[in-house]
Automatic annotation (TrEMBL):
<keyword id="KW-0805">Transcription regulation</keyword>
<dbReference type="Pfam" id="PF02954">
    <property type="entry name" value="HTH_8"/>
</dbReference>
<dbReference type="InterPro" id="IPR011006">
    <property type="entry name" value="CheY-like_superfamily"/>
</dbReference>
<dbReference type="InterPro" id="IPR025944">
    <property type="entry name" value="Sigma_54_int_dom_CS"/>
</dbReference>
<dbReference type="InterPro" id="IPR009057">
    <property type="entry name" value="Homeodomain-like_sf"/>
</dbReference>
<dbReference type="InterPro" id="IPR025662">
    <property type="entry name" value="Sigma_54_int_dom_ATP-bd_1"/>
</dbReference>
<keyword id="KW-0804">Transcription</keyword>
<dbReference type="InterPro" id="IPR001789">
    <property type="entry name" value="Sig_transdc_resp-reg_receiver"/>
</dbReference>
<dbReference type="Pfam" id="PF00072">
    <property type="entry name" value="Response_reg"/>
</dbReference>
<dbReference type="InterPro" id="IPR002197">
    <property type="entry name" value="HTH_Fis"/>
</dbReference>
<dbReference type="GO" id="GO:0006355">
    <property type="term" value="P:regulation of DNA-templated transcription"/>
</dbReference>
<feature type="modified residue" description="4-aspartylphosphate">
    <location>
        <position position="57"/>
    </location>
</feature>
<protein>
    <submittedName>
        <fullName>Sigma-54-dependent Fis family transcriptional regulator</fullName>
    </submittedName>
</protein>
<feature type="domain" description="Response regulatory">
    <location>
        <begin position="8"/>
        <end position="122"/>
    </location>
</feature>
<dbReference type="GO" id="GO:0000160">
    <property type="term" value="P:phosphorelay signal transduction system"/>
</dbReference>
<feature type="domain" description="Sigma-54 factor interaction">
    <location>
        <begin position="143"/>
        <end position="372"/>
    </location>
</feature>
<dbReference type="InterPro" id="IPR002078">
    <property type="entry name" value="Sigma_54_int"/>
</dbReference>
Amino acid sequence: MTTTARPVVLVLDDEKNICKAIELALGQEGMDVVTALDVSSALRTLHGRIVDAVIVDIRLGEIDGLSFFKRMQADGITAPAIFISGNATLTEAAQAVKIGGYDFLEKPFSSEKLITTVRRCLDMSKLRTQLALIESQSSSGEIVGQSGAIRKLVVDIARVAKSNANVLITGESGVGKELVANSIHAHSERAEQAFVKVNCSAIPDSLIESELFGHERGAFTGATASKKGLFEVAHRGVIFLDEIADLSVSAQAKILRVLQNGEIQKIGSETVTKVDVRVVSGTHKDLKKEVTEQRFREDLFYRLNVVPMRVPALRERIEDLPELIAVLMRQLSKKNNLKEKPIDEEVVAELQRYAWPGNVRELQNVLERMSVMSGERITVLDVPEEILSATDGVEERHDSSALRTFRDRSERDFIIATLKRNKGNISQSASDLGVRRTYLHKRLSVLKIGKKEYFL
Ligand SMILES: Nc1ncnc2c1ncn2[C@@H]1O[C@H](COP(=O)(O)OP(=O)(O)OP(=O)(O)O)[C@@H](O)[C@H]1O
């Protein structure tokens, strides 16, 4: 698949001479011009290839230009339209702009006027795509971390981004695969074009093909309007197919076709459309194993896996945790409109001993919970119990074990003394210690404090 930088403009006018004149003027400006003398051939073009702008005569034989534009909109074609006419009424011109037309040109117009209008229209359309892109990317950010694994990943991303090769990103769930895909797009020559993310496992089998490739009106019950597929939306940009292992066998076959010929076919359509899309896919499964067990097509696997990239689990780069915590806390307090709270070092040490099966996403959730539920600062008492109990007994990695032993012993003595003073009353002791009852119970069991030690 190749990237075509030349913008494509469709001209629909029943006067051959006008079509020719426009074709000549815009062709000299480096644009690809396709002409159509009637509505049906214009629609065929629009359904067969992706067009950046259309120039439409208001007075056409069969239907008027305005109805044609409405038909385009109903068919999900979003190219902007410039209307032209020699004898349109003022009302028609106003109507053209009202229904979303970009501009109106009165015939005869000079080629300079035409070129300026089309250029502006194309710039506006590009700007619109960029704005949509910024919006879709506003939640994504930089890849945080200084560990060897992350530094290597960042170098690999920069290298692979410059090529047009398909990339398969593997790694556990929540590890940052989407972030990597985003970063490949942002550093590629397609950065100003669309980045479309599809979670293949979230879309039911029955809908996936229509989501990816679109459908024509009436293609199936409920298809009341024609719909653009995500591959078409991603034209000239990047599509990120997340959880690719979950694709149905028939969707796998269709994706293979896009990768082989750059062709898509809407459900219910006779014609094929050429698209230019770079495919980045992601999975937390072992895709090679899925191939061996015949759940995934081998030919598709090789097409997707041109450049494999593995994102390491958080526990494999646990030295990145303090920096990640700092960055995520800043993001979270902004999101929740909260003052950024300081975190005790002991908390960070506790979090570093945890295995993080849900990786950075789990870390985000835990930090959010702690920052919402804590007081002025985040202390070890705010660390969720499931993390404390999972880390108890785990060999210390960042704390000397002598310090840990001392801490446990002091904590043990302090708890026993409080319980003795309260004659074994758990509620009162928890309140004196400033912790929840459940937490005190857990510490009693972790520190192996039996009743005989505090009942006099
Ligand atoms: N190295 C990192 N630096 C900063 N943020 C990160 C990093 N890794 C992951 N994140 C953040 O963690 C969250 C989860 O990451 P992401 O959605 O990319 O994971 P994923 O591997 O695609 O998950 P899944 O397999 O569940 O789709 C995101 O909000 C992402 O921004």
